[in-house]
Specification:
This protein is α+β, with helices and mostly antiparallel strands. Helix content is 30%, strand content 35%. The protein has three helices and six strands. Strands 3-4-5-6 form a four-stranded antiparallel sheet, covered by helices on one side. The protein has a two-stranded antiparallel ribbon with strand order 1-2. The protein is globular and about 40 Å long. The two termini are 22 Å apart.
Length: 119
C-alpha cells in the first residue's frame, strides 16, 4: 500500500508506510477521532499507569487488539514493552506483513506524554 509521509509529504510505501500507520493507530486515543470514535488504542491512557507487569500485559493486549482491528496488513506475533521512565515506554513489534508474506520488526515506537515519537 502507498501513502504519504505525515512529516514531509513525500510518498511512502511498504514497511515504512505500515510503521507510520501502526504509530497513528496506537497513539490515537479511542474516542478522539470525530468521524470514527472507535479508531485508535488505549495506549495513551497507559502512560500514567504503574510500570509493572500488570501494565506491561495491558499494553501488549491493547497493542495486539488495536492492530488486529485497524491494521489488516500486519499479523502481530510478539509485542515487547520497554519502560524508559515514568510516563514513557517503547514498543517493538514482531510480525508478518500480510501483503508480502515477509517477517518484520517494527522498532522505535516510543510513547512519551500523549504523543508518539517515531525514531
Amino acid at each position: 500500500m502507498n501513502g504519504v509521509n505525515a512529516k514531509n509529504g513525500k510518498a511512502l510505501s511498504g514497511d515504512e508506510h505500515l510503521q507510520q500507520s501502526v504509530g497513528d493507530i496506537l497513539s490515537t486515543p479511542i474516542g478522539s477521532r470525530v468521524l470514527n470514535r472507535l479508531y485508535g488504542s488505549k495506549l495513551p491512557s497507559r502512560l500514567d499507569n504503574p510500570q509493572d507487569n500488570v501494565t506491561r500485559v495491558r499494553i501488549i493486549a491493547d497493542t495486539a487488539g488495536a492492530l488486529a482491528i485497524w491494521e489488516p496488513r500486519l499479523q502481530v506475533q510478539k509485542v515487547e514493552v520497554f519502560f524508559i521512565k515514568f510516563g514513557e515506554f517503547e514498543l517493538a513489534i514482531n510480525g508478518k506483513n500480510r501483503e508480502t508474506g515477509e517477517a518484520l520488526r517494527l522498532t522505535g515506537l516510543n510513547f512519551n506524554g500523549n504523543k508518539y515519537i517515531n525514531n
